[in-house]
Specification:
Layout: H1 7-20, E1 24-25, E2 30-31, E3 39-40, E4 42-46, E5 49-56, H2 62-72, E6 78-83, H3 94-100, E7 103-108, E8 111-116, H4 125-136, H5 148-152
Parallel strand pairs: 5-6, 6-7
Antiparallel strand pairs: 1-4, 2-3, 4-5, 7-8
Length: 155
Amino acid sequence: MTRTRPYPSAREDLLRFLESNGFKPHPLEVFCPSSAHCWVDVAAAKGPDLWAFEYKSRSDSISRGLEQCRSYSNAFNYVVLVADRHRVTASPYFSKFKREGFGVWRHMGSSFYSILPPKRRRVAPAARGVVERQFRRLRLRGGGDRSILDWVRVD
C-alpha cells in the first residue's frame, strides 16, 4: 500500500522535480487573482510560460481540484493537477480535466509522471501581471528586482 506523503514533503519533492526539469519554481505559494480559489500550491516559469500546479493527496477532493484549475487558468499558460492517487484516471472528473486542457500528473514516492499533458492556453493580461509581479519580487543576490524574463532566462 502506498502511503500519502505529508503536503510539505510532497511540495518539496515537486519543487526539486521541477528544478531538475528546467522549471524555475517560485519558493512560496502564489496568489492568483480569481474569485474562488486564489492560492496556487506551486507556480513555476519555464521559458515565457507560467505553470500552476495544484497538489491533491488521497484525502483531497478531485472535484475541488477541477474548480481550482479553472480558477488558475486565467493567469497561467499551463495548469496541472498533481495527484497522490493510485487510480486518478478512474475518477469521474478525469475526462473533465482532459476536455478542459488541464494536465494530470501522478505523484508516486518522490517521482512525478505525466498522465495527461496540459494544453497551452491564452491568459488574461491583467491576471498574468499579478502573477508576474510575484516572480519579480524575488531578489537577486546583490539586491534589486529582476523581470520575469530575466529570471527565467538560461545564461
